[in-house]
Amino acid sequence: MVAGNGLLYPILGFASCVAFIYMSFGNLWLVYHEEPELPFVTRNGTQFMLDGRPFYINGWNSYWLMDHSVEEDRKPRVSAMLEAGAKMGLTVCRTWAFNDGGYNALQVSPGRFDERVFKALDYVIAEARQHGIRLLLSLVNNLKPYGGKTQYVKWAWEEGVGLSSSNDSFFFDPTIKRYFKNYVKTLLTRKNTITGIEYRNDPSIFGWELMNEPRCMSDPSGDTLQDWIEEMSAFVKSIDKNHLLTVGLEGFYGPKNPKRLTVNPEDWASTFGSDFVRNSKVPDIDFASVHIYPDHWIQGRTFEEKLTFVSKWMLSHIEDGHYELGKPVFFTEYGFSNLNNDFQHSQRDQFYKTILHIIYKSAKRKRAGAGALVWQFFVQGMEDFNDDFGIVPWEISSTYRSFIEQSCRLAKIQGTLLQNQNFRELCLQSQ
């Protein structure tokens, strides 16, 4: 009896300790695991699909989510932004899943990652799930901010293995392509430390974008960039067949496409080594992406002429999606600059409404225009991160109302308006 009790009491004590730990901290895990299982967004022809229904997107860009999640004092902004987007009925946010070299780098050097920053990205994905927002995650920048292809070329050059110091060697240097593939594999197979779900298996992620605004100006024929898109899209799909994939194009027509003369903003747009139709036709690319920046692209035009361009630009690409590509066309950035000499908030509102209305009309007709993401949203106190396009949407009532009305219109088409009582009441108030 003595020997038995001596063994029993330590066991009971250990069990009590385990029970206490579970009751105290287990809820932190359950917060992310008791929710109903989310479906992945898929594609059926020119339509995004969710739960067996067409899925039309009203959303936004906040490139800064991972960066702000690294610092505890800035972290609350991430949750606040996602919560605000959800309250507006927005469904998809595009953000950076890269920071190569430099301050708060995710990838410190080729194949070396900062776990602290990776946990920040874990947090962004987990928070998006909590608020019912899906993320379109971009994998690398064509531009220099947050490292981009420039950083990859610099790494190869510093190690003495780079073929060229040209930034465009990112697309053809075998060493650099190996760096990038290693980064992609590490990211896609990452197990979220909060949810326990590998990124490639997480339906909170809407999809992947190969590169933000790829250009290869050293080869205006487009062959170099085309080869890279084909290779990298196949590589992504070899690891992750769950998620949708896009290139990240601006939408310019290349030198062999007749639309370069009638639709491109100006002659220079066909010289960047990209072509909207050719690049988007790649079999492993699920949907086409397009950007809209009339202020930066067109000089010496009136506001009305810029709006005319926007309509023509969008309708041309929607037509391509419907007839040539057989894929959804997603306008993943659109912005109106406040640096124009005659800038007025009413002009920006009209610009927004033009784009949102074209998406709405396309959705009603079941055409290829699948949605649009405004560039870009912030919360208060983020002036240092803003550019000439960013806004805090609820600070301007007319702008805020326009986005809510679009969310309501698209939800009505999709037949999802009745699923969320709070959102339904918001839509009734906005009428």
Automatic annotation (TrEMBL):
Start and end residues of each Glycoside hydrolase family domain: 40-377
Superkingdom in the source lineage: Eukaryota
Protein EC: 3.2.1.78
SUPFAM superfamilies, A to Z: (Trans)glycosidases
Reaction(s) this enzyme catalyzes, per UniProt: Random hydrolysis of (1->4)-beta-D-mannosidic linkages in mannans, galactomannans and glucomannans
GO cellular component: extracellular region
Pfam families assigned: GH5_mannosidase (PF26410)
Keyword presence, Metal-binding: no
Keywords: Glycosidase, Hydrolase, Membrane, Secreted, Transmembrane, Transmembrane helix
Annotated localization: Secreted
GO biological process: polysaccharide catabolic process
MF annotations from Gene Ontology: mannan endo-1,4-beta-mannosidase activity
InterPro entries, per database record: GH, Glyco_hydro_5, MAN-like
Regions that span the bilayer: 7-32
Sequence similarity: Belongs to the glycosyl hydrolase 5 (cellulase A) family.
Descriptive protein name: mannan endo-1,4-beta-mannosidase
Organism: Manihot esculenta (Cassava)
